[in-house]
Amino acid sequence: METTKSADGTVIAYDRAGDGPPLIVSVGAFCTRQTFVPPGALRQRFTVITYDRRGRGDSGDAEPFTAQQEAAQRELEDLAAVATAVCATASPQRPFLFGHSSGAAIVLRAAAAGLPAAGIVAYEAPFGNEDSPRPTVDPAARIRELVSSGRRREAVAFWMSEVIHLPEEVLGQMDGAPWVTALEPLTPTLPYDIAVTDGGVPTAELAAITAPVLILGGNNSPAWFRRSVAEQAAATPGARLTMLDEYDHNAPPEVIAPILIGFFGVLPSGGWRGGGTGVVLDGEVPPYARRSFWTLPVAFSGRASMNATVRGTLKPAIRSLAQPVSSCAETEAPGLSTTNALPTWPMRSSGTPMTAACATAGCSMRKPSISAG
């Protein structure tokens, strides 16, 4: 474990694994730096840096952050501090960034605010829209109220029921469950997850990004999530949008790793300075799409489309493998259609403990998934 200090003096803990250019991973709600375990193939190509966001694991916090805008700004500064620490002697000095859920919101917003990045992959930043489920009360205020009164278990239950809308059969298993107890120490950080995603898709911010960006979404995610990632990609200059077959909000690292390797591996060593339309035209297959996942075109203006835009007729990028993404060489990673995790949830099929299933704001699930939000 190594540490650095954020702009406000808060200590941020991080780990390094592997060899190669720096790749910083920012995780979502109820996650720590141990949540994302980089597969061997990723460690062979990158120095993977996982860090504890403030208030989690071995990182400190400066309390209280009652203003959501301040909380969001601190999260961006924390990522910048980690990037500065790990890239001081690295080559190239701009890191690659991967973020999941609220961690995806952090990497996108940090890059928009000026954090230098060699490339970005953002997996389902939960920026809401008119189709998103709405909590009955202000979730950040309610969670702070429960935490301050010592009712952290109730804060976990509130998040699961009112924010991410877990199905009733799963909520019924929470009473007395050890995994709920394990999540209680992280409840003070939930308002931070809300802060970095508040206000819908930040189109003006995303328009300022000058790094190459790949937006990921799950074909099994709710319709509002699929709309959100399409709007994120459309708002980001030159961005690509990839939808993962048979996954929702929680494709595991074994599935994500080849996507990161493929996308980051084809970028020029000197980085990318923006430009381009982000449109995949007929017959054009980006190198990182030559795997078993879909790459959807992003319109030059407007939302992503499978058919036609002002830039011409578009089609999904060719899928060169017959099978959808469902497993990788190192570890079996079943999709939702084959997952039956209820008996051991929230554990992966391999038995690796996870903190919670789909624990990020607004991710409604019909049945449990296999990874944490």
Radius of gyration from the alpha-carbon trace, in angstroms = 19 Å
For the report, how would you describe the main beta sheet? 9 strands, mixed
H-E string: EEEHEHEHEHHHHHHEHEHEEE
Output the structural class: alpha/beta
Polypeptide structure, described:
The strands form two sheets. The chain has a nine-stranded mixed β-sheet, sandwiched between helices. A two-stranded antiparallel ribbon has the order 10-11. It is globular, with a radius of gyration of 19 Å. It has 373 residues and is α/β, with parallel strands linked by helices. It has eleven helices and eleven strands. The longest helix has 20 residues. It has a domain of 247 residues: 3-Layer(aba) Sandwich (Rossmann fold). The C terminus is likely disordered. A hairpin with a 2-residue loop joins strand 10 and strand 11.
